[in-house]
Amino acid sequence: MDRLATFIWIDALIRRVQIGGASAFVVQRGDAHRGDVLIKLAKLDGTAAYLMRTPMSFEADSFDWLPKPCEWASEADVDAYIMRRKTSDRDLWVVEIEDPKGRHFLTENVNGEWVFPDGGPKS
Q1: What string of pLDDT tens digits covers the 123 residues of the chain?
Q2: Entry pTM
Q3: At 90, which helix (H) or strand (E)?
Q4: 74 in Cβ contact with 47 (< 8 Å)
Q5: What is the CATH number of the domain that holds 61?
Q6: Cα–Cα dist 8/60, whole Å
Q7: Residue 10 belongs to what domain range?
Q8: Do residues 34 and 3 make contact, with C-beta atoms less than 8 angstroms apart?
Q9: HSE (CB half, 13 Å, CA atoms) of 117?
């Protein structure tokens, strides 16, 4: 089974973010169909985190997101990491989500844990 094209997945993520009352935008466009995705979560208070999509299994077309979304750092440190990644991977998509609550709006596993559609972890 073919994987969903990256640009379609990103469009859906941005729409979920907008419906949830936050903002999201594409910082860098990568390969439209197979590009890796890095998400920057900005809480708009000077702190941020990032999530990278990583394969959970080489046999299945499933993914997980690491590191944990609650591992907040200074936004400058996160931006420096993202700049290094952008330099080394020209096919990388970078999406920034700006939300004071720090929600990621992902419906996939995040660090091995399923999340609710509101973007927060299950309680």
Answers
A1: 467 889 999 999 999 999 999 999 999 999 898 888 999 999 999 999 998 876 654 545 556 676 655 578 999 999 999 999 989 988 899 999 999 998 889 887 676 665 555 545 444
A2: 0.82
A3: none
A4: yes
A5: 3.40.1530.20
A6: 20
A7: 6-98
A8: yes
A9: 6
Which residue matches tokens 């299994």?
57
Whether 103 maps to a domain, the answer reads no
Distances (CA, A) of 73 to 10, 25, 36, 41, 45: 24, 20, 22, 10, 11
Closest CA to 37 of 6, 4, 83: 6
Q: What is the DSSP string of 77-88?
A: HHHHHHHHHHHH
Distance CA 43, CA 97 (A): 9
